[in-house]
Design brief:
With about 350 residues, the chain is mainly alpha-helical. It is built from 15 helices and 4 strands.
Length: about 350
Amino acid sequence: MNALFLFALLLALPIYSHAAYTFKNGKLIKSEEVATLSVQEHYGAAMQAYQEKNWDELLHHSVIVIKNFASTPFAIESYYYLGAAYFHLEEFELSNRFLTKYLKKQSTPKFFEEAIQLKFNIAEGYQRGVKKHLLGLQNMPKWAPAVDEAIAIYDEVITALPHHELAARALFGKAKLQLQSELYKSSIETYQTLIRRFPKHPLAAESYIGVGEVFLVQSQREYPDQDFLDLAEINLRKFHHAFPGDEKVAVADKMLMDMKEVYASDLYDTGRFYERTSKVQAAHIYYTRILAKYPATQVAQLATKRLSKLQYKPPEKVVEPVNLPQQAVEPVSPLLNLQVQGLTVDNTQEPPKDAQ
C-alpha cells in the first residue's frame, strides 16, 4: 500500500518549470537553447565537451545546434552526440531515442558502428537490471523493468551487423533474457542461431551450455517431459563434437546429470506414493525403473534402499507350453534312409528274387 500511495502522490504532483522561453523562427524555445554563436562554434564547443567527457556541456551545445541549425549537416551529427551524452548521463531511454533518430537521418551515417555500440551497451545495461522511467516519463522514478526494450535493441544490433562480434554478443544476451522471461523455445532458437552463425566463437560454446540450462530449467518448472531429456543429450553430444576437450563441457555434463536427477526424483516420488498406499508392486516398478534409466544418480541410491526395505519379490513368469499343430509326415523309405546316411543305392537294379 505504501508503494501505491507514493506512486499516486508522484502522479498528483504538478510539474513546474522555471525555464524562460522565447520565439525564434516562429517557434517557442527555451532561452537557454537559443544560439549565441555560429553553428561552427557551437559544434566545436560540443566536440570539445565530448573530448573532455563533459556530458552536460555536450548536451547543451548539441541541443542548440539541432534547435537552431536543423538543416545543416552539423545537426544530423548532433543527434549522435545527444545519444552519447544521455547514455553517459544514464538516461538510457533518451539515449536510445536519439541514436535511433541519428541512424534514420542518413543511409550511411558517419558514426554508424559507434551508434550501434552505444545501443548494445544500453541493452546490456537493461539486462543487468537497469530500470526505465515509469510510464516513460522523465520526471517519474526508474522502477520499471526494461526486458522487452533490451530484446528489441539486441534485435536492432543483430540486424545492423549480422556477422559482427556485437551480433554474437547480442544473440547471447537476447537468449539469456528470453530464458529469464520463460520463453524457453525462443531462447533455444536464439542460442542455436548463434551456434550456426558463429560456430567457433567462444560464445558458441557458452550457447551449448545455455541450451542445456534452458532444458534443465524447463524440466524443473514444467512436467519433466522425456523429450526435453532426449534433446538435452543431443545438444551435449553436439557440444562434445564441436568443442572436444573444452573444459566447459564438464559444466554441460553436470547440467545433464542434474536434469536426470529431476527425472529420477519424479519417478521416486511416485514410487514413494505407491509405497505409502501399500501398493508394493507398483512401488517396486518405479524404483527399478530408476535403476534402469538413471543408475548414476543420487536418487538411484535412495531407490536401492527402498527396494531393500520393500523386500518384494516379483512373481516368476510361468512359460506356458506351446502346442504346435501336428504336421503330416511322409513315410520315409529304407532307400531314402540309406541315401541320407551317405550310402549309394542303385535303383536301376532288380531286387533279389528271394526278396520278392
